[in-house]
Amino acid sequence: MISHADRTSHGQTRFAVALDCAELGVWDADLVNNACYYSPSWKRMLGYGDDELRDHPDLWLDFIHPDDRERALASGDSHLEGEAESVECEFRLRHRSGRWIWVLDRGKVVERNAAGRPTRMIGVQTDITAQKEAAARLALLNQRIELALDASGIGLWSYETETGRTSWDARMREIYGLGPGPEEVPQGTWHARLHPDDAAAAEAAASALLAEGTPVRMTYRILRPDGAVRHIFALSRLVHPPHQPPLVVGSIWDVSEQVEVSDKLAAEKERLRVILRSIGDAVIATDAEDAITFANPAAERLLLAEQADLLGRRTADVLPLRQERTGVLLPPSAPLACAERRTTERDEPALFERRDGERRVMRDTASPLYDAAGAVVGTVLIVQDVTREQARQRELAHLARHDGLTDLLNRSSFDKALARAVEDPAKRAGLALLYVDLDRFKMVNDTAGHAAGDALLKLVAKAMAAVLPAGAKIARLGGDEFAVLMEASGPDAAYRAGGDVVKAVGSQQLSWGGRVHGVGASVGIVLLADAGPDPLTALSLADAACYASKSRGRNKVSLHDPAGGAAAGGFAEVRAASELLQALKENRLRLFGQEIRDLSDPARRSRRIEVLARLAGVDGSLIMPGTFIPAAERFDLMGVLDRRVIRQSLDILAGLRPASEAPVLSINLSAMSLSDPELWSFVEAQLGETGQPAERLCFEITETAAVNNFAAAERFVRDARRAGCRVSLDDFGAGLSSFGYLRRFPVDGIKIDGAFVQDVARNGLDQAICAAVGTIARELGVEVVAERVPDAEGVELLRARGIGFGQRLYLHRPEPLAWLLDRVGAAARRLG
User: Taxonomically, which superkingdom (predicted)?
Assistant: First the structure.
């Protein structure tokens, strides 16, 4: 018989062999004795032998990448403090060869003492270097695809045949003139925008696609909401995804400019054809020896000579043509056509200087003349004056590359120039990118009108061109934003150029409507040598530096610090804002809830819950608000985020049964949302659509928020409370305007800022502040909630000072909102 101990030993041996074969690095931490065991496979993962490394608790920290250290430690601390169910973190470890390998560290507390404190943790570290490299390559590929789509101007759409759901991407909405908005659009949008003259053909093609699967490839016109007619080239087909209903996918290009140019060229060709038919072009006939035998009136006008004076002379003498770019004399076409017995036409127009000194651009064609026996007896030379046509083409080419208002380069041309500049390290060296954003320009537009704004933009463009080097590429990116690509010997030279721009722009004054208007400029600079080979990164870094200039008081110049200064932080916010928009677009907003407990019975479940926003990362991890809220505030995205939170919260409430058991949800409102005159209309509409009573909502106003439209904020508070919603003043005491808010906004509750609560058991001043707020609340007849309640002692102190409610991890840890509401509803049903 095999004993239990032997079976256990054999089992442990097999488990160790399995872990070793799986190449998993195991660590076993004794938290009491401050010791840690590292398996041989863990050491081999780093390139070491089984006995080459001595086990000690911080051995793994000797190998961790400096940039990952704090995050890895925070993951362990979060688990030990009970904030996370387990340790899970990705970081880099230094291999013996000197390279960095990525590992996935997962672990968990497996033993606790009688007091519930952790005494032992076990975990596994897995080498995920290959996965990370593959993910990086995939991300790069996705960026390239997105860049290609963006540069090509293609709009993408899809139609679900079973549900009727129609989705348009942002470029599709832009082409149709709809502006930013949700990806899903009403089904009738495409039909409603068809040009009446093209609607029948387009809808017939769509019907054939749905009924017979016939792909669509056609051009039709649409009517945008502003009345503009645009020409669209459309491609679409019916696809059959595995195990899914058929799906129609398509793409469109706005070919209006191409159609316009094509129409102009067609008209020009028709004009030339008519001219040729009426012998409007110069027609010259020669004999086999290239002596002129005939010249029509058009040729006489061209050559400034009568036909009698031209007869017998050679075409090379009376019509010397030169290459337009070099001025080199070209061989005459007539003798060449005779020699080769075929029609000859020059590949490029040629330059002709007339007797009066005027230069003309000519295109000549020579065709041989045959007698009855087939012998060449001469040529017919047709000479077209294409000077005007060439000028028109150059003008169109110029318009395609330049901004129509300022005549600076447009965004497309500048993007191409920047891409060429950054693709080669040798070209990047010695170049600087300046991002210029005008200050107070909106004020001019709002007070004097857009015509005055346009005039001021022209002045600014001329002023910038006057102070920048002659070789600088200056572009208007759009609105009041400009960019400059210029040579700079170093940061000092680039900084001086930025200062010159600030001075030049600030000195411009526009007299308009009896008033003098002016603007300032904030400039951000990045040296392309510091920006790398990605033009979008370079622009983002320069934009971030420009934002740093604005944050320093405007009319300033800021240089991107590659070591990670303010501008680098701004770039991080640019990326965070982009990630937030993408997450909202992909419905990756996750709502959590934290109960607001009654301090008289803090262990009891509460029906009052504060809604907390998180984002789900593409890898499934949760992104906390400290990462994306600052970016949302900077880039004016808080209104979008707040509305999404309100809508999603009400949707979750609507899914509960029965509705009477649903608790009150507290939703934080940003200053941007509170200042929005349309906010209550939105809330009211959402309440109506979801069928939820207003009493289910409590809006928390952060008193430190900089409300810029108090009239709108006051109207919202009044309308919300009148409808039955509650309003609470959050973070009370954190700013200087707490009591001013109390006078301005009638509220139902006050939340004491956690800074006065978290150390209340040891700080007499905090105790006095909490007691004072409790007294104020009783005088106003409102309730008080304390944030960051630390422990049981804090609960007793707060309750003794008249504080009725509290919240923090000690009282309740945030949970997914839907789960929490189900649990609270179940508890309510049991009590009922």
Answer: Bacteria
- The answer to whether residues 86 and 107 touch, using CB atoms and an 8 Å cutoff, is yes
Q: How many helices (H) and strands (E) does the chain have?
A: 30, 36
Q: For residues 668 and 745, which has the higher predicted lDDT (pLDDT)?
A: 668
Both structure tokens of 259:
């159609």
Query: Which pLDDT does position 566 carry in this prediction?
Result: 45
Query: Which residue, 664, 654, 668, 669, is CA-closest to 595?
Result: 664
Instruction: List, in sequence order, every residue forming a beta bridge with 783; answer none if it has no partner.
Output: 749
Q: Which CATH superfamily, name and number, covers 405-563?
A: Reverse transcriptase/Diguanylate cyclase domain (3.30.70.270)
The DSSP bridge partners found for residue 160 are 247
Gyration radius of the chain over CA positions: 37
In angstroms, the first-to-last Cα distance of the chain is: 58
Residue 682 — very low, low, confident or very high, per pLDDT cuts 50/70/90? Answer: very high
| The predicted structure's pLDDT at residue 221 | 93
Tokens coding 153: 């101007």
The pLDDT value given to residue 231: 93
- Which tokens sit at 509? 């004054």
Percent of the chain with pLDDT over 90: 22
pLDDT digits 0-9 by tens, 204-235: 998 998 888 889 999 999 999 999 999 999 99
Q: Are 222 and 194 in contact (CB under 8 A)?
A: yes
The domain spans of the chain are: 18-127, 135-254, 269-393, 405-563, 586-831
User: Could you count the other beta carbons within 10 Å of the beta carbon of residue 445?
Assistant: 18
Second CATH level (architecture) for the domain 586-831: Alpha-Beta Barrel (3.20)
Cα separation, 25 vs 124, in Å, equals 5
Is the CATH code 3.30.450.20 the one for domain 18-127? yes
Quick: pLDDT tens for 559-568: 887 765 444 4
Residue 746 · residue 776 · CB < 8 Å: no
Count of CB atoms situated within 10 Å of the CB of 297: 12
269-393 is a CATH 3.30.450.20 domain: yes
Query: Is 60 exceeded by the pLDDT of residue 292?
Result: yes
